[in-house]
């Protein structure tokens, strides 16, 4: 399931670094541990987007100017989602970088139908390699139209699916069909415009900083429906629980497929259920791409 967490921004104009997934990852990990339920401490089958809102770029990073900002969180397990949301709403004042936020309400995305062939876009960068300590291999560039690009994603996906314990051996053996085909028209157009689709990002794991290369590009995935569902809910590639590899269907209209979500918390009434609606001129709580404020 995919949940949109909508926050009110208390200090418009405050900023986050361009690449702030590590800040969000530390925040969510802190909430998970703070809640005290040990069964969730090492839960890695969740995924999340960057923080979405109306932004303006400066040398400092992304300045947020909308009254509302959105974080999309995804996981197949409803108890984990409810546990995480409970911790969020126990924290009335949240500081992320220079932003001061307050949780307002939650929405659930209505799951789109997935075929054995789907075109996806990356909501957050796609990481192929998991580096080890004092190892630079995680920054290695791999051309998207090579077999290695697809093979690395296949290996990491099947490994995670097997470790989850959700699929029997017969199912795992049936998942051998897997191919990632990037949209090279898009990639080549970026190259012609001297724009980047692959950048270096920081990741923190066990208090150790790693640098990895992340790719942001559209692609078509050919795989079994179970595999499609897994990557849509849990992310694709490495460091998915650190906020990388979150996907959405291309040409999807997320603002048209949401419903209010009341997570299981005794006595809790979601903001929207109280009769409140998002402000019409603020950021759409749809998890889509950030809008830019005019100069």
From TrEMBL:
<feature type="region of interest" description="Disordered">
    <location>
        <begin position="271"/>
        <end position="295"/>
    </location>
</feature>
<dbReference type="GO" id="GO:0051607">
    <property type="term" value="P:defense response to virus"/>
</dbReference>
<dbReference type="Pfam" id="PF01881">
    <property type="entry name" value="Cas_Cas6_C"/>
</dbReference>
<feature type="domain" description="CRISPR associated protein Cas6 C-terminal">
    <location>
        <begin position="115"/>
        <end position="249"/>
    </location>
</feature>
<keyword id="KW-0694">RNA-binding</keyword>
<dbReference type="GO" id="GO:0016788">
    <property type="term" value="F:hydrolase activity, acting on ester bonds"/>
</dbReference>
<dbReference type="GO" id="GO:0003723">
    <property type="term" value="F:RNA binding"/>
</dbReference>
<comment type="similarity">
    <text>Belongs to the CRISPR-associated protein Cas6/Cse3/CasE family.</text>
</comment>
<protein>
    <recommendedName>
        <fullName>CRISPR associated protein Cas6 C-terminal domain-containing protein</fullName>
    </recommendedName>
</protein>
<dbReference type="InterPro" id="IPR049435">
    <property type="entry name" value="Cas_Cas6_C"/>
</dbReference>
<keyword id="KW-0051">Antiviral defense</keyword>
<dbReference type="InterPro" id="IPR045747">
    <property type="entry name" value="CRISPR-assoc_prot_Cas6_N_sf"/>
</dbReference>
<dbReference type="InterPro" id="IPR010156">
    <property type="entry name" value="CRISPR-assoc_prot_Cas6"/>
</dbReference>
<feature type="compositionally biased region" description="Basic and acidic residues">
    <location>
        <begin position="274"/>
        <end position="295"/>
    </location>
</feature>
